[in-house]
Amino acid sequence: MLTFIVRRVAAIVPTLVFVSILIFGLQQLLPGDPAMVLAGEERDPTVIAHLRETMHLDQPFPIRYLYWLRGVLHGDLGESLRLQQPVGALIAEKLPVTLELASIAIVIALAIGIPAGVVSAVRRGTAWDYGANVVALWGLSTPNFWLGIMLILLFSVTLGWLPASGYVSPFDDWRANLAAMIMPAFVLGNAIAAVLMRHTRSAMLQVLSSDYVRTARAKGARERDVVMKHALRNALIPIITLGALEFGTLLSGAVLTEQVFTIPGFGKLIVDAVFNRDYAVVQGVVLFTATAYIVLNLCADIAYAVVNPRIRVQ
Length: 314
Description:
MetI-like fold
């Protein structure tokens, strides 16, 4: 198992280097000059020249990249031009909010999607199967921003049960925090649950028709044991992959949902940074998101080996 993990970690290093070059290179193609933005309205040539020298903008691309990479390796992602704060501090401030929202959303998605997919596969061709497919189609077809607005109209405006927007730290008031997060988390989890349901159903149908499942049934195993121990465990590989990727997407910031519910997470941070041409923040958030994707894929690989020990041998 240790050798398996070491091989996966070794494969991550060149991927991260390539991703960092891609992020830094694409960022340089964006229009605008940070030195001109910081110089203010007067735009004194002396000030602009000093700022360009300070930020290494007068250096060629490889030198600028090496300066940036050296800072990243030392934990320095730069400083926000607009907020005048370290990018690392901004990420540390916004990460708990997005991490909480993503965690609640993925729990909702798993709690709905996997059981619905299993029931749909086991009861194939029945009303349960058709009902689950209709719900999954609805989840895939419903825009997040529309569902969010409808939930606000129902539970906040009409019933007055939940706050329409805003965020409260769980350390200040966990009840208010849960009330503020449940609607946006459900909006995000609803779409992921639909995808998980479809993939779980497809994987379960394939496994349920395999020889070892028929053998287990022929030996007199209970149907519950056949479904849960023999079928579901072997159908988890694509579900683990999808879950890791979807969780990475949630960590990158659900832009529309966070905007609708005014959640101060990664989505709002990256939108504000793009509109204000705050390049250091854009680079830092995108690099963190890419790293999160890679780490989550590593976790998925480790989960594969736990679920199916044959993968470790291969």
